[in-house]
Design a protein that fits this description.
With about 675 residues, the chain is α/β, with parallel strands linked by helices. Helix 14 links the parallel strand 22 and strand 23. It is globular and about 90 Å long. About 45% of the residues are buried.
């Protein structure tokens, strides 16, 4: 029997926090983790909180008050649930209240939440219940399904080309799980994809068993879904990243669709968690299985699946539909022939033909975070750091080129390949492409979809809808249009500058580029007509571009694996990134240097310096954000958990002055 309870509260200004309260004798036998309670706060107020733990001790100088009342004997979450959140806090170097804030809808802390009015149109999309369609698996699908069904490994990877019918296999596994009386968590990277998949699932399983969970459903809806989950009324929960924190009871299966997608990782703010990784812990707690699927799996996932005999492959499109024809257009020759524009003559002509046939076109502008790089105009070689194999970035302030991994800097670069000094900096935005397209394709309906349109609430969905209905001839967009878009009338995809995909100053840039180009190519020719894809490039020889043209993941993977091994990048190490920032550059730089030196010494003393490699400090690629100068340290940990604990143990001891901030990003998805 404990004396004190830790009560989790959310008070304005203080945020989510736990406080200790005395447990009255009368409550001792009833009190449980996860129960909502009413507690006194300050001289007069009573607030709502949740039991989050017990203890027999108080910190000195604290005088605890008594818990007032248990508001509901049924806990809202379990001890296992708290354990999962604690794991997140520990692994991602973050405090528990911050994790709780991400996981628990804030509505929970409102006093009258019990009487909270049910939202009128609860999951409106789910109300429609069309006929129950069950597909018979193709022989190839059936074989893979049975293999996955009988594998012992807890995590399986389903690698299947676009349109191979991965979803049909998920459905069979879902059916089996439900028959066993267990529940399913189905994650997809984007909200738009989540709704598409949900509709498909409802057709198959009926609306009453299904619910949706992602950041843009209302808190009231979340609360209602939470209650249903708690009462075990929901069999299949759909969601994006944050759904991994939904308290599903009796979980039997987790599906992670499009598992290569970077949005499974939260990059900002804390906790900077990866839902794929958290899902593994969640599965462990429940003894559940995980099936991840992709046509272009994450290199780390593929490597792991290969090494644990849990890789399953669908080699053919369903019904033997054909993959599109991909061709590469050399923009250098276009220049030589006098076409200095951003559209090649081939792309212009194919676009016009396609639209005349009544079919639709997608143009992809890749503008991931950073889209500038420097290229040789003689031989197309991109300027790279010799030690890190990533592109150098031009800085106009210092008129120099820098490597943002190791700090290498050069003032007067020459092409590594041919020695030429004729170098040019590149970068094109989507707005400009739209303007130009509207001129060239006069009279046709051109629309743009990028993060600008995402910011306006429904615009994104409206544009997509109009495109699906044929009201838009040409859709221009950034990487978001590469995902899941299933419009059978699209028969041409043009990638304006395929090189941009490969030239991020990041060790993952080849992977991202390959994946993006392969996925966007997969949007073309999904209906009866064979599709076409055009990659415009200044560097037709780029090996990874060639692999994307062939849509050959395995051969891409083999090449990429070699490079990762050579430079000790994941999966051959785990990366921890530390970002130090300050309003004053010298402070950020100095603090970063000091931490690096201490960390290096610490690791050396433990004789781990061959297995934990510290790189830096260097200025971040994005050197200043909102007036804060940023420096970073990269740690390549080749010791798994032990290395992780060593580094985080060191970081825990750091105390910084108020004007210097530290961010720790475990397994960062990029290092800009
Ligand atoms: P993936 O998720 O691998 O890209 P999907 O599961 O979306 O592929 O399948 C592509 C298309 O083929 C979908 O329209 C789907 O309904 C159809 N399809 C796949 N397998 C079957 C099947 N066994 N029977 C009927 N249709 C199928
Ligand atoms: Zn050159
Ligand atoms: Zn370097």
């Amino acid at each position: 029997m404990y004396k004190y309870a830790l009560v989790l509260t959310d008070v304005a200004k203080l945020g989510t926090k736990t406080f200790s309260y005395l447990i009255p004798d009368s409550m001792r036998s009833d009190i449980k983790i996860g129960q909502p309670v009413s507690v006194p706060f300050g001289p007069k107020r009573k607030i709502k909180g949740y039991i989050a733990g017990f203890s027999n001790y108080l910190e000195e100088g604290i005088k605890a008050k008594y818990i007032d009342e248990i508001l509901d004997t049924e806990p809202l979450f379990t001890l296992e649930y708290l354990k999962l959140l604690e794991w997140v806090a520990n692994y991602y170097f973050c405090d528990l209240p911050t994790v709780l804030k991400t996981a628990l809808p804030q509505k929970f802390f409102e006093k009258n939440v019990k009487n909270y009015r049910k939202p009128r149109k609860e999951n409106a999309a789910l109300q429609k219940n069309e006929e129950n369609k069950e597909h018979k698996l193709s022989p190839e699908q059936q074989k893979v399904y049975e293999e996955i069904k009988h594998v012992n490994a807890p995590n399986s990877l389903l690698y299947g080309i676009t349109g191979s019918g991965k979803t049909e296999i998920y459905f069979k596994l879902i059916e089996d799980t439900i028959k066993e009386g267990k529940n399913v968590l189905f994650m997809a990277p984007e909200i738009a994809l989540v709704s598409q998949l949900t509709m498909r699932t409802i057709k198959r399983f009926g609306a009453d068993k299904v619910a949706i969970w992602h950041s843009s459903i209302s808190e009231a809806e979340k609360y209602s879904v939470w209650q249903k989950l708690r009462q075990n009324e929901i069999k299949i929960l759909f969601g994006a990243r944050s759904a991994v924190f939904a308290p599903i009871k009796n979980l039997g299966l987790i599906i992670i669709d499009e598992e290569h997608d970077t949005s499974y990782k939260q990059t900002m703010p804390n906790p900077r968690y990866c839902a794929k990784h958290v899902a593994k812990e969640l599965a462990k707690l429940h003894g559940a299985k995980i099936i991840s699927g992709s046509a272009t799996p994450d290199v780390e996932s593929f490597w792991e699946a290969q090494n644990t005999n849990s890789l399953f492959e669908l080699k053919n499109r369903y019904n033997n539909a054909q993959l599109p024809d991909v061709s590469i257009v050399d923009m250098k020759s276009e220049r030589i022939d006098g076409n200095l524009g951003i559209f090649s003559r081939t792309l212009i002509n194919r676009t016009k033909e396609t639209i005349e046939r009544g079919e639709q076109v997608i143009f992809l502008i890749n503008r991931r975070g950073f889209s500038t790089y420097t290229q040789c105009m003689e031989c197309a070689q991109v300027l790279e750091c010799k030690k890190c194999a990533i592109p150098l970035i031009y800085h106009s302030q210092t008129n120099s080129w820098r490597c943002h991994y190791c700090g290498y800097e050069v003032k007067h670069p020459k092409c590594e390949n041919c020695g030429s000094e004729e170098l040019e900096n590149f970068g094109t935005g989507s707005q400009r492409v739209e303007e130009i397209a509207k001129k060239i394709f006069e009279g046709m309906s051109v629309a743009r979809l990028d993060s600008d349109s995402l910011n306006k609430k429904n615009e994104h969905i409206e544009i997509l809808q109009k495109f699906q209905n044929g009201g838009i001839n040409i859709l221009i967009g950034t990487q978001m249009i590469a995902k899941g878009l299933d419009n059978p009338n699209v028969t041409l995809v043009g990638v304006i500058n395929a090189d941009l995909s490969f030239n991020l100053p990041d060790y993952r840039s080849s992977e991202r580029g390959f994946s993006l180009l392969t996925q966007v190519a997969g949007r073309s020719g999904r209906g009866g007509h064979k599709g076409k894809v055009i990659f415009q490039t200044y560097n037709p020889q780029n090996l990874f571009l060639q692999k994307a043209k062939e849509q050959d993941y395995i051969s891409f993977f083999e090449k990429e694996k070699e490079l990762r091994q050579e430079y000790d990048y994941p999966p051959y190490s785990k990366i921890i990134r530390i970002i130090i920032s300050s309003k004053e550059e010298f402070k950020a730089e100095h603090a970063c240097l000091e931490i690096t030196t201490h960390l290096e010494n610490y690791i050396k003393k433990l004789s781990l310096d061959e297995r934990i490699i510290v790189l830096g400090p260097t200025p971040c690629v994005i050197g200043k954000i909102r007036g804060e100068w940023r420096y970073n340290i990269l740690i390549k940990n080749k010791l798994e958990q032990k290395g992780h604990d060593t580094v985080l143990g060191f970081l825990r001891k750091i105390i910084l002055p108020n004007d210097i901030k530290m961010i720790t990003d475990v397994d960062p998805s990029d290092i800009l």
